Amino acid sequence: GLNKNHSFFLNTGDILLTYTDGCTEAMNHNHEQFDVHKLCQSLIKNSGLPVEKIKERILGEIMGWMCEQKDDLSLVIFKKI
After folding, report:
1. Distance of alpha carbon 67 from alpha carbon 29, whole angstroms
2. What is the pLDDT of residue 6?
3. DSSP 6-71
4. Structure confidence at residue 1 (pLDDT)
5. How far apart, in whole angstroms, are the C-alpha atoms of residue 9 and residue 17?
6. Closest CA to 53 of 77, 19, 26, 81
7. CB–CB of 61/42 below 8 Å?
8. What is the end-to-end Cα distance of the chain in Å, rounded?
9. Is there a contact between 55 and 46 (Cβ–Cβ < 8 Å)?
């Protein structure tokens, strides 16, 4: 259920990314989604940057991918330094 609590630890350099479905369901002109695989590729490619830059780059890729924004785009990124 929704009331379960889970704990985990981030090691130095670890990144936790949470996102809304609008990020992975963004469609291009060919009706292809910016899926979880593309989101992970973008995160990995930009992982060496500060979190604000990671967010900007990922959102930029999503916005460049989609032909029309139909849903919210929200990211929350934590990076242990």
Report:
1. 6
2. 85
3. ----PPTT-EEEEE-HHHHS-B-TTS-B--HHHHHHHHHHHTTS-HHHHHHHHHHHHHHH-SS--S
4. 60
5. 14
6. 77
7. yes
8. 32
9. no
- Reported pTM: 0.87
Q: What is the mean pLDDT of residues 57-77?
A: 94
| In the predicted structure, residue 44 carries a pLDDT above the cut 90 | yes
CA distance linking residue 19 with residue 56, whole number of Å: 14
Partners of 33 in the β-ladder: 27
Long-range contacts of range 47-55, CB-CB < 8 Å, 24 or more positions apart? 47/15, 50/79, 51/15, 51/77, 51/78, 51/79, 54/15, 54/79
C-alpha–C-alpha distance, residues 46 and 57, integer Å: 7
